């Protein structure tokens, strides 16, 4: 129903934003389910903190 009230250009923008968000979520889930920080060669996001 909302589609009839939203111009096609705006719908395309909304769709692209949602698809981008979905892709980012999939990437984040992959990071969370990846190797543990103690695994050799793994990346720990917390170790990438700003230098002190």
Average of pLDDT: 75
Which runs of at least 5 residues are low in confidence (pLDDT < 50)? Answer: none
Question: How much strand content do the residues show?
Answer: under 5%
Gap between N and C termini:
53 Å
Number of E-type strands: 0
**Helical stretch count?**
2
**Shape annotation:** rod-shaped
Helix content: 55-70%
Round the Cα radius of gyration to an integer and report it. 18 Å
Element-level helix/strand string? HH
Main sheet, how many strands, which sense, barrel? Answer: none
- Structural class estimated from helices and strands: mainly alpha
Q: Would you mind describing this structure in some detail?
A:
The chain is mostly helical. It has two helices and no strands. The protein has helices at residues 2-5, 8-32. The longest helix has 25 residues, at 8-32. The chain is rod-shaped. The termini are far apart. The model has no long low-confidence stretch (mean pLDDT 75).
List the keywords:
52 residues, mainly alpha, rod-shaped
Short description:
With 52 residues, this protein is mainly alpha-helical.
Itemize the secondary structure elements and their pairings.
Elements: H1 2-5, H2 8-32
